[in-house]
Amino acid sequence: MRTRFDCGTQRLKAKRQPIRDEPPRFLMKLPEDIDKELWFTVPDKCHGEKHYLLGNPHTFKGRIMAWCPHKETSFFVSLKEMKELSEPARWWITGYLRGNEPHPPINGDGDTNFDSKEYKAWEKACDEFHESGVWK
Ligand SMILES: [Zn+2]
């Protein structure tokens, strides 16, 4: 004999699938200082679910400290590892990477020669840095 409770149980069982096939249905509780709008995904982390930007880990240029609500821990990530980003996260990273650029090359007098080969190479490296988030 089926009861109302059984019907509910059946429904729950029907939804249960391997976790990688389930879309994120809810956000786990986030620490209060995390901005929920600054989310991004990394394909091989937590089945592509949302993670959140935190700040500068002061390790490598362009490296970002982020929060994983699933493991409740911070981790380091670069732009090139991310797949999807919220619009606010994209702007946050754009500003962050501009601010993380190393100084342009200078000559012996401490001046920047904007026409030099070194300066052109620095500009090219900056363009690549803005795309990947990794300084080479
Ligand atoms: Zn995670």
Give a verbal description of the structure:
The protein is an alpha+beta fold and 136 residues long. It has helices at 4-15, 87-99, 117-132, and strands spanning 39-41, 50-55, 64-68, 73-77. The protein has a domain at 20-101: Roll (SH3 type barrels). It is built from three helices and four strands. A four-stranded antiparallel β-sheet has the order 1-2-3-4, with no helix packed on it. Residues 1-26 have low confidence and may be disordered. The structure holds zinc ion. Residues 45-46, 51, 68, 70-71 line the site of zinc ion (ZN).
Topology at a glance:
Blueprint: H1 4-15, E1 39-41, E2 50-55, E3 64-68, E4 73-77, H2 87-99, H3 117-132
Antiparallel strand pairs: 1-2, 2-3, 3-4
The structure holds zinc ion.
Low-confidence stretches: 1-26
From the 3D structure, determine the CATH topology of one domain.
SH3 type barrels
β-strand percent reads 5-15%
CATH-level-2 architecture of one domain: Roll
- Tally of separate helices: 3
How would you sum up the global shape?
Answer: elongated
Helix content: 25-40%
Order of helices and strands: HEEEEHH
The secondary structure category is alpha+beta
Task: Supply the CATH class of one domain.
Answer: Mainly Beta
Strand line-up in the sheet with most strands: 1-2-3-4
Total number of β-strand segments?
4
Please give the largest β-sheet. 4 strands, antiparallel
